């Protein structure tokens, strides 16, 4: 039981200050202050270099509302998330179900599927650009052997986005898989033994014991994935440059282009804050779901 | 015990899938050992014939890859070290000390989890520009130190250590510093390892911030550097060299993963377990 | 070495009072046991003495000096925790030497004291092991050793035996008693187990709901419980209680009490506190009940427990209440048999309607 009488608080206060100061200073300077500064910048016509800044009030926000590129980028990002999140979750769940349990083979396979997560986005995109390349890639020979012209995956309006999803799956499945594995490990063995004595089939065990047992983790993974995939940047920037015809232009990429290619820092920050609001909404959703889960 | 056969079948199926999973990596690895001239004609085949290490030799001597690698190592190591120090200190205060405004402060820190990097990288950029500090290690490291998740994890972990241990230490004439250094930290090695690994991997693979901060070719980290040379898809440097660079850049992080994979998976379990 | 005084000690968590003003003087070298059911505040009191818990009101003094504002480490106390609280990453040697090291003792002195303590506690072969590699009893001894090396003025024990199995508990109990005899230090020991209290204490402090119910030597408490709570808490099997009404009270305290079945039992009460017609509760220790076919307490046998040296007979009296008798003789009735008991009248405790003892020996003691 903690006790919070003033005496103890006073005694600990000085120690707490010393222990907290390094983090809090860095936190305020490099996280809280920039956040407020972002709001400040968004009220300006602010250029990256040259020091041109002019207070323009809500003009950037008005611009944003009528900016077709912004809505397109938002739409693309949502389309990407809508493809990547369910497929990532299902793939991670299937892998975790298959690899949950003891044995060397399973342990090695778990490592294999996790290993691709440690590559940097540049390596991942390099690998997949090679794999998907129509003239030098790994898939092209398959098409040729069937007498077909290889598809230019990254250059095609229909295939570019799914290609980014595939690369993202390959890169990112490790973490949700590990989360599912951890959750599966928490289900007591006795439940499975009882189910077996109750003549439960493999399917009904999955349906009535395993899935209900990990439903909180499913929610957690879904929210983490939504938040994570909304931030997609590297894959699109490096594999398709947002093309073809801006069909893979994502929000973060649009922020980067606006700020660091077109130097419109004020407007870029406005888009960034819009992204922040969207993602904060999802984080709230996570908190709300988490609290709801606790009540049960 | 039951359904041994179907269990095996599942493992075999997943194993086949794992082979497919690894094919791209193996392929890239193989290409990194083939001469550029051969690759110009054909990239097919999973055997490194003809075999050459010339690509790696070129990476080491001609390209700036070793230079970038050095920046990545310095930045990732320092970042990891400082994150561990400040997160564990703050975590100890939140978990074990009583002080005014403790709750609101903790809420403030946890709320920081909701702020994505993309929301603040532009103001950060203008700050470092004002200070004239872009293209320095400091600029690459400091914005990455304010990670609330580290404080959150360490607070949770310290809370799980029995309070009696600390009370025993207090009766044993230990100061807060002694309790922290001699009792809490040694008991937190698993948590510190996990947090350290994730910080390191994150720092190593960081892309957006180094891309806008380290704009001079001499200050690239390996991640940004690789992106700069793959831009023209290996035309200028040669495909084999490009592949060798990728392998070379991934080797340290892969090595780290192989050594510590046990902690990584355990760490995921811990951070998810609450 | 020093005694410990509590003056009107209070503890509250917000609006919730857990200790309601406890006063107590513990003499130098005394072995005092705080006993009571869980939640009675005994551990909180111990932790306030240790300095681990803030004091809400009143004072704690050790060796005559007020300690309220003195941090735990400077109070000259050592504590043995319920879960031992051994530092898992340190060897036994380091665990025992940690406090001395923090106090700045020389390496040589630390080694000497640790070795001595290890000798006393038979821990010498295990000095380089980690706590994980020790048995429960060994860990317990390390925890005690960690307290000993500090040579504190006051030892505090917080339910130290509750994690040991029954046999080890008895053994460690004697070891702690011997340790007390050997060191002669003041020891305060908290337990919920009245057997531990009876066997180890110089004086027992019985607590209930944050109030000290009675303080006294073990046999004082056993023979002369001050109220129903102490009477029921000390002693196993528990004292039997029967409700009754006083019939007549003579000036010398000789009285008769009528129990619900109508039988009349002679008792001794303090005449100043009793008069005819008072509702009272009679208390009979199980070993003070004899089987007697002509006895006033008639009933039916529920269960018989054979312990070898004694026999416990659980019965329901015709008046409805349950009773336990502990017999040295083996009469071994069958379940459901009719049975009648008689009490040895001079050992009947009498409590008034508010639960306070009005048994005559209390009065006699005051008079003498």
Quick summary of this structure?
The complex is a heterotrimer of chains A (296), B (274) and C (368). Chain A is mainly alpha-helical and 296 residues long. In chain A, 74% of the residues lie in helices and 2% in strands.
Can you describe this structure?
- Chain A: Keywords: Cell membrane, Membrane, Transmembrane, Transmembrane helix, Transport.
- Chain A: It comes from Marivivens donghaensis.
- Chain A: Belongs to the binding-protein-dependent transport system permease family.
- The complex is a heterotrimer of chains A (296), B (274) and C (368).
- Chain A has helices at residues 6-42, 59-65, 68-99, 104-115, 121-132, 140-145, 160-172, 174-186, 189-197, 202-213, 215-230, 234-240, 251-261, 265-295, and strands at 44-46, 53-55.
- Chain A is an all-alpha fold.
- In chain A, α3 (68-99) packs across α7, α7 (160-172) packs across α12 (234-240) and α11 (215-230) runs antiparallel to α14 (265-295).
- The mean pLDDT of chain A is 87.
- With 274 residues, chain B is an all-alpha fold.
- Chain B has a single domain (62-273), classed as MetI-like fold (Orthogonal Bundle), CATH 1.10.3720.10.
- Chain B is 74% helix and 0% strand.
- Chain B is built from 14 helices and no strands.
- Chain B has helices at 4-31, 36-41, 54-61, 65-96, 102-111, 117-130, 137-141, 148-160, 163-171, 176-187, 189-205, 208-213, 222-230, 239-273.
- The mean pLDDT of chain B is 87.
- With 368 residues, chain C is an alpha+beta fold.
- Chain C folds into two domains: 4-231, 3-Layer(aba) Sandwich (Rossmann fold), CATH 3.40.50.300; 239-363, OB fold (Dihydrolipoamide Acetyltransferase, E2P), CATH 2.40.50.
- Helix content of chain C is 25%, strand content 33%.
- Chain C has nine helices and 20 strands.
- Chain C has helices spanning 42-50, 92-102, 107-120, 136-148, 166-183, 194-200, 218-223, 228-233, 360-367; strands at 4-13, 16-26, 31-35, 57-62, 65-66, 77-80, 154-158, 186-191, 203-208, 211-216, 240-249, 254-259, 264-268, 279-284, 289-291, 297-306, 311-317, 322-327, 338-343, 349-351.
- Chain C has a six-stranded mixed beta sheet, sandwiched between helices. In chain C, strands 13-12-11-14-20 form a five-stranded antiparallel beta sheet. A five-stranded antiparallel beta sheet of chain C has the order 15-19-16-17-18, with no helix packed on it.
- In chain C, α2 packs across α3.
- The longest helix of chain C is centred in the middle third of the chain and has 18 residues, at 166-183.
- Chain C is elongated and about 75 Å long.
- At the A-B interface, α1, α3, α4, α5 and α8 of A face α1, α4, α5, α6 and α11 of B.
